[in-house]
Amino acid sequence: MDVSIEPSWKAHLKSEFDKPYFQQLTQFVKQEYQNHTCYPKGKDIFAAFDHCPFQETKVVIIGQDPYHGPNQANGLCFSVKDGIPHPPSLVNIFKEIKVDMEKPYPQSGNLERWADQGVLLLNATLTVRAHNAGSHQNKGWEQFTDAVIKTVSNELEGVIFLLWGGFAKKKSNLIDKTKHHILTSGHPSPLSANRGLWFGNQHFSKTNSLLSKMGRTSIDW
C-alpha cells in the first residue's frame, strides 16, 4: 500500500506500512472518511512528518487525539490552522512560553513553524470523526505511533521528548533514556494547569538549553 508521507519517514517506517494491522487501519480510515466528516483533511493526516524530516527531528511532543471541531486540526498535535481561535490547552502552552521565553503571545496557533525547525508534533491517534472525541482510538493508530517513537529512540540520538500529562508520560517506556532527554509535566489543559501542574515547567527554555549543550540550533518558540 502506498502511504503519502515524507520520504525519509517512509524509508524508516516501511516495515510498519506492510503489517496487517496497518492494512486494516487504512481500510478503516478510508471508510470513515468516505462515510463521515473526519479530521484532519486527508492530505494533512501525516503533516507532522511532512514538516519534520526524520534526521532533522530534535524534539518530540506527544498529544493524544486530533481536535474534532471544524477547521481546527491540521495534523500537528496542539496546533490549529491560521485564523482559528486557540483551544484552551494551546492558550496555556503559549502563556507558559510568554513567561518562560519572554516572548509575546502569538496571533497564530499554527505550529507548523515549530515543526519546520525539527519539532515532531505527534498525536497518538492521527484521525478522528467530527464532534466525536476518541472515535478513532484503538484501531491501530497507537501501534503505529508507538513504532514511530521507538524508531526515533533507536535510530537517532539526543532527541528531547516533552511528555505532558499521564497519557504522554506512559510513552517513556518506549524511549532509551541513555541516549535521549525526557522532560515531564502536567498537561496544559485547564484541568491540569489550574491545579499547578503545568505553569512554570520551563520546558521551552530547558529544551533550548539542552539543544545548546549538544551544539544544536535552539527552537524559536
List its salient traits.
alpha/beta, two-stranded antiparallel sheet, Uracil-DNA_glycosylase-like_sf, four-stranded parallel sheet, 221 residues, 38% helix
Helix count?
A: 9
**Could you tell me the radius of gyration in angstroms?**
17 Å
First-last Cα distance: 36 Å
Number of strands: 6
Instruction: Tell me the β content.
Output: 5-15%
Mean pLDDT equals 96
How does the helix and strand content classify structurally? Answer: alpha/beta
Q: Percent helix among the residues?
A: 25-40%
Strand order of the largest sheet: 3-2-5-6
Largest beta-sheet characterization: 4 strands, parallel
The topology string of helices and strands comes to HHEHEHHEEHEHEHH
User: What spatial form do the alpha-carbon principal axes imply?
Assistant: globular
| Uncertain stretches | none
Short summary of the structure?
The chain has 221 residues and is of the alpha/beta class. Helices cover 38% and strands 11% of the residues. Helix 7 (165-169) links the parallel strand 5 (160-164) and strand 6 (181-185).
Descriptive notes:
There is one protein chain. The chain has 221 residues and is of the alpha/beta class. It is 38% helix and 11% strand. The protein has nine helices and six strands, in the order ααβαβααββαβαβαα. The chain has a four-stranded parallel β-sheet. Strands 1-4 form a two-stranded antiparallel ribbon. Helix 7 (165-169) links the parallel strand 5 (160-164) and strand 6. The longest helix is centred in the first third of the chain and has 16 residues, at 20-35. The model has no long low-confidence stretch (mean pLDDT 96).
